[in-house]
Amino acid sequence: xxxxxxxxxxxxxxxxxxxxxxxxPPAVISTSGNVSVVGTWSVFGDTTYTGVNTGTxxxxxxxxxxxxxxxxxxxxxxxxxxxxxxxxxxxxVSDSEVDIKSFATPGVVSAVTIISYSxxxxxxxxxxxxxxxxxxxxxxxxxxxxx
Length: 147
Description:
By secondary structure, this protein is mainly β. The protein has 1 helix and 10 strands.
């Protein structure tokens, strides 16, 4: 069953990222409304784009068993990807936006777009940052594990 869910989510991820404009907002297939990020989410993909042309140097991480983003109700976000643990702060602004400190750039609060396909599958996309070192962006795919 986990393999089937992973296959579906991976397919959605590929379709979404291969068909989206790099400089504009990501395409939304559907939204379910009333999305709350509070809870524990399993990571099925985490892609960071860096370099001279966004998309040319993606760092792609496929989630492993035990990886998570845990959004606590008090505004803290606990993450585990492989052996890397981190604690970030967040504020859910709306159903479609959550502000996360150090999500894409250390020390910077990013207005992260929430794209929801259901109450249990979301993607978090940071804005495209055009800096002197080249553009940067982060996209994370999550499946709700527990609320």
